[in-house]
Amino acid sequence: NIRNTEKLSYDKEHQYKFMVTAYDCGQKEAAEDVLVEIEIKPVCKPGWQGWNKRTEYESGSGSKALFSNIHLETCGEPVSSVQTRIDLQTSHIGKGCDRDTYSEKSLQKLCGASSESINLLPAPYGLSNWTSGLLMDNGHDSDLIFRFDGKHAAKIPDGVMPKNLSDQFTITTWMRHGPSPGLRAEKETILCNSDKTEMNRHHYALYVHNCRLVFLLRRDLDQVDTFRPAEFHWKLEQICDKEWHYYVVNIEFPVVTLYVDGVTYDPYLVTDDWPIHPSHIDMQLTVGACWQGGEIVKPRFAQFFHGSLAGLSIRPVKIESRKVISCLQTCKEGLDINSLESLGKEIKFHFNPAQSALVIEGDDIDIVNRAMQLAAYINSRQFPTPGIRRYTISTKVQCFGEDTCISIPDIDAYIVVLQPVEPKITISGLDHFSRPASEFENNRGVILFPGLRIISTIRKGQHNDGKVHRFAGPEEIVHNLDYCDILIVGDELNSEEECLELESIELHGKHLEFTNSTAGMSVYGVDSMANYEHVLRKLRYRNWETASVFGRRFRLTCSELNGRYTSNEFNLEVNVLHIINLMDHVNHAVVQPQFLQSIHHSLPDLPGHNLNAAHNSVIPSAATIVIVVCISFLVFIIVLGVFRIRAAHQRTNRENESGKENEMDWDDSALTITVNPMENYEDQEHSEQESEEEEEGEEDDITSADSEESEEEEEAEQEEDQQNVTRQEQLEWDDSTLPY
Question: Which of 141, 207, 456, 696 has the fewest CB atoms within 10 Å, i.e. is most exposed?
């Protein structure tokens, strides 16, 4: 007999071996020993086998199988049916799952909704600055989420919403809300329209009370003074489960319908009330609380909301269709099944509306295994939100008529959505040009971006065994844009003199709109880069008062996914060319500048000086004056150089002559010197005539007082040189008696 002293485990040891030796009573050993081998059989554990706890998903992978080799182990137990449920947990991603993070207005246009919707929680900049005092939740990628802590609320400015809504309108919002604090919960207002002053009447409101959603609508008194439906109540688990849900309230008075995540719910309670008597009191629309403007000492907010809101909007006059509602709340990620036709009718499966839960039912284990191997994860976003998506698998098994059956443990695993390769959006084109002022002043103006190009590139790595070894070159890709802003660099546009223009016909057939102001223009809407290029190439700049403008600078930037990816800043400089008239028109009277008049009167009446010519040569502009001054200065420099070269040449000749005189020994004992008095007179007359001509030239070339002084100094030096030469020439040698 062989027995064990402790519990054996297959995980620790698969096999035990030992030798057995026999002895007789005389302790004589047997001739041969015997080898004994004991195999440890593993304990069969029912459950799923052949699955991986971690699965990686790369953007653009499409539908990727999660369990390619999974199978169910039943340890030989006969099983009559199997039910398996896969639950994908995405509540931490965005507003409940991965969705496009475009603005709410852009999403509504993509889903075919009317552009008449009014966004009550826009981004807090520009004219929509009433949300600047609210708390924003920036923890999600480009999602515009507002968090209300019971202390903050927003007033909607007058003119944003029509004062009186018709019998048909729609309220839509994303909301995440938990149980109300305190034993006695108070009303938590999401949206409220009440009297601004004097009284405290609520005309319509949407609020949460004790995990119930309530819509209030008080109609004005008309010809029939009777009770009407006024409050509509819904009690749902989604209101206080701290998860994101999409709420749509369709009002077709007196019928009100609620959609939560695309599912219709009718009110469980409707209460009637009297109509409101008409008055001339203004109303105040608020978000996050209700305004109490009357019946209290100091007007204030009351009934604050605790939770998060996003995309709160009202669509007047019309109600939203079921198709649009389903499109707006559809997730871009979820569970999927590949090759449904290969499973046949022996298997049953169904998804929840968000495709975050998949249930598979079947009687044959092999078919159930094949269905599980086809279960997949899909994310249709071009740039999905990276992170972890956890999922669980729970299984129920039924056996043939037995009270007890095997139990299948649950599976906890996760999907890692890898960081997508970020696109590089590049704007290129002509960044500087000049045009005549007449082109800016005409009715068409000047096209700013005639050769604009918008491209997007990514750098993909070459993968091998899950590792990136090297990067390939940039690869051009195509994706959408959601807005492009053209900003004015420098002073804003003067609306009385200049503007940016874009014809509405250029937007025909596209999902684009634009807003225009003195600070620039914004073209927005989810559309292709090619459509944005086409529209921006038609943008024109006009200026009908170009006299004081020499140029303008513009800056263009574009975005994808509400600012998640932005382009480079493309700067454009435009210059205005002005035509300068050098001469006035012949038929126009010439007005002489004051500074030239003073010079004209101060000139002496010299011979050869034409006063009429000086009077008619009036300089028409400052630029011409500068040109004349420069030319005169250049002439003065040339004349000065000539004089100095001539003086230097004469000085050299004198030195040479004096040297020769010193070398010669004259015998002047018999020397006779005769002076011609007429030659001296002719030389003096000739020098005086030359000095007069030089003075006339100086007066004709007057440019400044400095130039006159310089010329007088040069003339003095010239006269001295001429006198020296004259004295030498006055000496006449009588060489008749000289011996050679």
Answer: 696
Tell me how far apart the alpha carbons of residues 638 and 652 are, in angstroms, rounded to a whole number: 21
Residue 640 CB partners (closer than 8 Å, separation 6+): 710, 714
Q: What are the b/e assignments for 650-678, b being 16+ CB within 10 Å?
A: eeeeeeeeeeeeeeeeeeeeeeeeeeeee
* 66 & 82 share domain: yes
Residue 451 lies in a domain: yes
Q: How confident is the model at residue 171 (pLDDT cuts 50, 70, 90)?
A: very high
Q: How many domains does the chain have?
A: 3
- Give SS3 for 257: strand
Closest Cα to residue 416, out of 379, 443, 381, 449?
A: 379
**Residue 45: is its pLDDT beyond 90?**
no
The CATH number of the domain where 544 resides is what?
2.60.40.60
DSSP 8-class letter at 701: T
The secondary structure element, H or E, covering residue 554 is strand 551-560
Mean pLDDT of 166-187: 83
What are 257-277's pLDDT values in tens digits? Answer: 999 988 899 999 988 887 776
- Are 133 and 56 in a shared domain? no
How far is the C-alpha of 420 from the C-alpha of 460, rounded, in Å?
10
Q: What is the distance between the alpha carbons of residues 546 and 445, in angstroms, rounded to a whole number?
A: 12
Residue 593 has pLDDT above 50, yes or no: no
CA distance 223 to 505: 46
d(CA 471, CA 494): 50
Residue 317 tokens, joined: 């006059």
Q: Containing H/E element for 638?
A: helix 622-663
Averaged pLDDT for residues 669-674: 49
* CA–CA distance, 398 with 682 (Å, rounded to integer): 147
In 98-237, at which residue ranges do the beta strands (DSSP E only) sit?
118-119, 135-137, 145-149, 154-156, 168-176, 188-195, 202-209, 212-217, 228-235
Measured distance CA(149)–CA(167) in Å, rounded:
33
CA angle at 569 for the pair 568 and 573, rounded to the nearest 5° = 140
Residue partners of 448: CB distance under 8 A and separation at least 6? 486, 539, 540, 541, 554, 572, 574
The answer to whether 328 and 310 are in contact (CB under 8 A) is: no
Please report whether residue 686 resides in a domain. no
Six token digits for residue 509: 């057939």
Last-in-domain residue among 329, 344, 375: 329
pLDDT at res. 608: 36
| Same structural domain, 518 and 565 | yes
Position 290, amino acid:
C
